[in-house]
Amino acid sequence: MAKTLYLMRHGETLFNQLKRIQGACDSPLTAQGIADAKRVRQYFASQRLIFDHAYCSTQERAVDTLELVTSQPYERLKGLKEWNFGVFEGQSEVLNPTIRPGQAGYGDFFVQYQGESGQQVQARMVKTLTTLMRQPDHQQVLAVSHAGACFMFLNQWLTPAEIAEQQIVLNNCAILKFTYADDQFTFAGSHNVEVN
């Protein structure tokens, strides 16, 4: 029987609002980020979703989001952290390299600036989430992570063309649903909270 993973992006932060690069660095949730996380909690309740385990990255914005979404116990995992953008951390998003159509993320651009490559981010996300879902008591799992990390995980299972065709957008508090069986994740849909 297939298991289910709900992979969620954290709520809006101050750096998201200011359009600053935020990977290894952190900033607090905004009022909008808090409100959106609370809407996700209501959405999960309306869908009667009960998670047997919950996880988040070790970064404050993911921890705070998860605590607003559920009151159940959870574990923080470094493997769910955001892409490290090296010396670009905290700088304006206009400095990000352009992603060409059909390209999956930023490739290894940030490695030369003491950051991670997309492949490194993808490998740790796949390893972390596969390790979790292999556990026999993990049937329905919630994991809160970050846009770049979630995007690279999604790119392991869908091509950039499939992502564009399905119009998958990773807004703050976006939820990606996957089924899991035999060390394979299958994308099963996405949900974005309504933004006022």
Layout of strands and helices, then pairs:
Elements (H helix, E strand, L loop, with lengths): L2 E7 L4 H4 L13 H16 L6 E4 L3 H10 L5 E2 L41 H17 L5 E6 L1 H11 L2 H6 L9 E7 L2 E8 L5
Parallel strand pairs: 1-4, 2-3, 2-4
Antiparallel strand pairs: 1-5, 5-6
- Assembly level: single chain
Integer-rounded radius of gyration: 16 Å
**CATH superfamily annotation:** Phosphoglycerate mutase-like
Widest beta sheet: strand line-up: 3-2-4-1-5-6
Rounded to the nearest angstrom, the distance between the terminal CA atoms is: 38 Å
β-strand amount: 15-25%
CATH fold label: Rossmann fold
Integer average pLDDT = 95
- Can you tell me the overall shape? globular
CATH class: Alpha Beta
**Percent of residues in helices:** 25-40%
- CATH architecture identity: 3-Layer(aba) Sandwich
Number of domains: 1
Weakly predicted, low-confidence segments = none
Largest sheet: 6 strands, mixed
Number of strands: 6
Order of helices and strands: EHHEHEHEHHEE
Structural class: alpha/beta
Total helical segments: 6
